[in-house]
Structures are given as C-alpha cells and as structure tokens.
Amino acid sequence: MTSTSGTLLSIALRVGLVLTLGGVVGLLFGHPLAGLLLGSLGMLAWQLRQQLRLYAWLRDSRSLHPPVSVGLWGDIFNAIYRMQVRQRRRGQRLAAILQAGRQTINATPDGAVILQLNGEIRWWNARARDLLGLRWPQDEGQRIDNLVRHPAFVSFLDREARLVSAGAEASSVTVPSPLDDSIMLEIRIIPYGDGQGLLLARDISRIHRLELVRRDFVANVSHELRTPLTVIRGMAESLH
Length: 240
Fold this sequence. Notes:
6 helices, about 15% strand, about 60% helix
C-alpha cells in the first residue's frame, strides 16, 4: 500500500511539474492555456512512446533486458523483466527435469513408448526404435497398431487402453518383433502422466527359447517314458 501511494504521488508530482512548466512557458508568450495544452500533449506523446517501446520489446523478445525508462514505466519494465527471468528459470528447470527423465528412460534396457490413450505415439526411446522399428519423425503421431500389426497386440492394445483408463493393473502380451520374428517381445502398458500410457517392450527371446526347450524336453521325456511304462504295465497285467 505504501509503495502504491508513493507511485501515485510520484506520478502526480510529474504531471503537476509538466503542466506548471507548460503554463509558465505559455504565460511568457501570453497564451497560458496553449502552454497547458502543449504540456498535456507532450505527456500524452511520452506515454504513447513508452507503450510502443513495451509492445516492441514484448513482440521481438530477442532481448531479455528491458528498455530504460523512469517513473511508473520504469517500474513496469522492471516488473515484467523479473517475471521473464523467473519464467525462464522455471522453464530451464522443467526442461532439465524432462531431459533427465528421458535420459533415464533411454538408459533402460526396455523399449519405452509414450502413447495417448487412443494409441497415438508421442515419444519413444532408442531401444524402442531397435525393437519396434519406430522412425523419427515419420512415426510421431501415428497409431502404434498401424506399425505393430500382430493380431494379439492389436487386441491387447484395445483391451489395455480401457484398463489403463479405469486405473486397473497392467497385464502383458508376448508377440514377435515387427523387425524380426525371431525376437520375442513382452509388451505391457502402464498409466503415465495425464491421459497417457507408457508402453514397455522387453526382449525375452532367450527366456522364450528356454521355455520352448523345456517344453520339448518334457514332451520328449514323457514320450520316452511312456513306451517302457506301457511294456511294464502289460507284463504286470500278464503276471496276474
């Protein structure tokens, strides 16, 4: 309140000084009203010039430092300058946080893709490029099911989008990579941010091959044991 009163007093003193000077000059020439009018026009012209300087500064935005002025306009320029400094610092902090987050995601062994709930691709890391074949910038804004067309994945994406919207726990699906059928991917989608999902693709080819080997081994052992067991059972029945 004190600062506002001081500003208003300063403005009143400046207006009074300009009008007094205009009146004195007009009185010297025998036209005091004309002097007051010229003083008022001079003040109006100065105000208009400050407005134009403010407009040019905000429009160009190439220079962070404000125009030099005095009085109320000087306070306005400096206040806007301080706001710009705070906003730029805040933007730099947010950009640093975002960059750190992306670097963290890039460092993970899994492919990561940020999706809208309708399946549109917003961003992906380098591993997702290698596993899913995503290309920058052609694939930004594309629907993920236009690029990964395996029927199991398309069905999973439609179901999972509804589950993510409802806040349900994420499940997963195993499908081959669109780049190489020998690469098996475990894909899951988890809620991310506001109205988005984070698709995580993990290469489980080795685990998948080991599972196939285990199944083949169990099947072979079962087959090999079935014949002698059948013979033994037949002999046992004949003994009775």
